[in-house]
TrEMBL record:
It comes from Hucho hucho. It comes from the Eukaryota. Residues 128-180 are annotated as: Disordered. Residues 165-180 have a biased composition (Basic and acidic residues). GO terms for cellular component: plasma membrane. This is Leucine rich repeat containing 17. InterPro entries: Leu-rich_rpt (IPR001611), LRR_dom_sf (IPR032675), LRR_TM_domain-containing (IPR050541).
Length: 180
């Protein structure tokens, strides 16, 4: 079904219930900015979904749950916002490895503009540095309290994942001071 270029702004729940045997749905070049959770309910056999060239920022949790046989998902030319709301889409794609998708690139916030959304999610879920044994006697404050210093080096790969403003040409070391 080709519904491209129809100025559609929202998909409400169960919009396609009567078309349950649908295999291809083209919703590209509309003004879609919201897709309700049950909009694709009943589309159990849908194989291709084109949502490119719309105004989508993220998907609400559960939007894609009924698309069991989906194999192609075109998401290009949408203003994807890379914040916590985008995580559902990446989670769903991770758990549906048979789905080929394209066009998932951050447009907001500025520091992530142009990044693949998957890379943004990886940095969001990055681990904190592992503690090293404190150096004995270092940082004695003279008041019975001891400050422990932790110095760790970041790996080059991790630096490449950072937004450009956070990349620093200075030595790739940081210091954490803990007061106890």
């Amino acid at each position: 079904m080709d519904l491209s270029s129809n100025s559609i702004t929202q998909l409400r729940p169960k919009e396609f219930v009567a078309a349950r045997d649908l295999k291809l749905l083209n919703l590209s070049s509309n003004s879609l900015d919201q897709i309700d959770t049950a909009a694709f309910a009943g589309l159990l056999y849908l194989r291709e979904l084109d949502l490119s060239n719309n105004s989508l920022h993220y998907f609400q949790y559960g939007v894609l749950e009924d698309l069991y046989f989906l194999r192609m998902l075109n998401l290009g030319d949408n203003p994807w916002v890379c914040d916590y709301n985008i995580h559902y889409l990446i989670y769903w794609l991770k758990h549906h490895p048979g789905v080929a998708y394209s066009g998932l690139v951050c447009t907001e916030p500025q520091e992530f503009r142009g990044w693949p959304v998957e890379n943004y999610v990886k940095t969001y879920n990055g681990e904190c540095p592992k503690d090293k044994d404190p150096q004995p006697g270092k940082g004695d404050t003279g008041q019975g309290q001891t400050a422990q210093e932790l110095v760790a080096e970041t790996e080059e790969e991790e630096m490449e994942l950072l937004p450009k403003p956070l990349r620093d040409p200075r030595p790739k070391k940081y210091e954490v001071t803990r007061l106890s």
